[in-house]
Specification:
- This protein has helices at about 5-10, 15-35, 40-60, 65-75, 85-100, 100-115.
- By secondary structure, it is mostly helical.
- The protein has two domains: about 5-35; about 40-115, no CATH class.
- The longest helix has 21 residues, at about 40-60.
- The termini are far apart.
Length: about 120
């Protein structure tokens, strides 16, 4: 059975390069999409932040308190049954600060949706 170096031929440095690439991409993905255990929370908060940004797009203000009341009235999820305007504000600011690329992407999606929906 040939050794790994013989099988790799001129690509003998491929394993350490792939390991370095994995470390680099892993760090980048953590910055963009969240660390392990946080991705689910980030995904859940995206819709809340998109709703907040949509309200701001249509009313020129965030009105997070009114959005929180609407969510409380409509939601059957325990996580959202006691959401407040301040909590929405904090989640939005946290995403803006911690995941700026995700936040910008969400804002662009809301803006595109808002433009399409305007008569």
């Amino acid at each position: 059975m040939p050794s790994l170096n013989t099988a790799l031929g001129s690509f003998h440095d491929l394993p350490p390069r792939l390991e370095a690439f994995g470390i680099l991409i892993g760090g980048l993905l953590d910055r963009i999409a969240g660390k392990r255990g946080q991705k689910g929370k980030l995904m859940k908060n995206q819709f809340l932040i998109m709703a907040s940004e949509f309200v701001r797009l249509k009313t020129k203000r965030y009105n997070d308190e009114h959005l929180a009341e609407l969510i409380q009235a409509l939601s059957h999820e325990a996580d959202l049954s006691d959401i407040s305007g301040d909590a929405i504000h904090k989640k939005r600011e946290h995403m803006k600060r911690t995941y700026p690329l995700v936040y910008a992407w969400l804002c662009n999606r809301v803006r595109d949706f808002g433009i399409r929906e305007t008569p």
